[in-house]
Design a protein that fits this description.
With about 230 residues, the chain is of the alpha+beta class. A hairpin with a 2-residue loop joins strand 7 and strand 8.
């Protein structure tokens, strides 16, 4: 069941005009069944980017206005019951997953894509991320359709009001198609790995190997309670 979390501490006496509006964003916990249990794909943010620099995160980013466009609705299956806000969150998570780690949660003629089919599309990751080609045009030109049924809302986090830069982030779960290999983009992200949720928490706490933000940590803790993707 989806949880909504908002840390409100230290907001007493704050002038409402000093509270910044949160930016809408979406992220996706990409899952697979590994030899030792459930694994999630994580990426390390580049130290050169603004938000979450150097941290281990799930693929994601800001929701774009066009993520809830009529053009994308026409290219999506199983999303007809979603309002514009929910649809925009979902599409953003799919788009960002493709941009940042090369996984494409879409299908062609009812089948998910393989690595061989994705290889000619790899160059579009950067083009879409830099807004050089609309995501809807990319999907339409390559005969692709989004399948909203493959995304499961997991949690929603809102940055505390006392922070100068705030995000309203929806977290989704999605099983990675079996014939797709994930990789970081080498720009916003500089490292990617499959890990059991508890393993990355332990590496952050015991070895100080990774930096984890609070929301990332708690989502990992919740995920660690599950043994398999199912």
């Amino acid at each position: 069941m989806i949880q909504t979390m908002e840390a409100r501490g230290m907001d007493a006496g704050m002038d409402p005009s000093d509270i910044s509006a949160p930016l809408l964003s979406a992220t996706v916990l990409l899952l697979r069944d590994g030899a030792r249990g459930l694994e999630v794909f994580m990426v390390e943010r580049s130290g050169r980017v603004g938000a979450f620099a150097g941290a281990m995160v799930f693929p994601g980013g800001k929701v774009a206005p066009e993520d809830s466009s009529a053009e994308l609705r026409a290219l999506a299956d199983n999303g007809g019951d979603l309002d514009d806000a929910a649809f925009g969150f979902a599409v953003s998570s799919v788009r960002e997953a493709f941009e940042e780690c090369g996984v494409l949660l879409a299908h062609r003629d009812g089948a998910t894509l393989t690595d061989a089919e994705l290889a000619p599309l790899a160059g579009f990751r950067d083009a879409i991320g830099r807004n050089r080609i609309p995501f809807a045009r990319f999907l339409a030109d390559h005969g692709l359709r989004l399948d909203m049924a493959g995304l499961a809302p997991f949690s929603r986090w809102v940055t505390p009001v006392f922070r100068p830069k705030r995000f309203d982030t929806m977290f989704f779960l999605a099983a990675v198609p079996p014939d797709q290999t994930l990789s970081h983009d080498g720009s916003e992200t500089v490292h990617g790995l499959w890990t059991r949720p508890q393993d990355v928490i332990d590496a952050a706490d015991r070895d100080r190997k990774y930096s984890l933000y609070f929301a990332t940590r708690l989502n990992l803790m919740d995920l660690a309670l599950s043994g398999t993707v199912a």
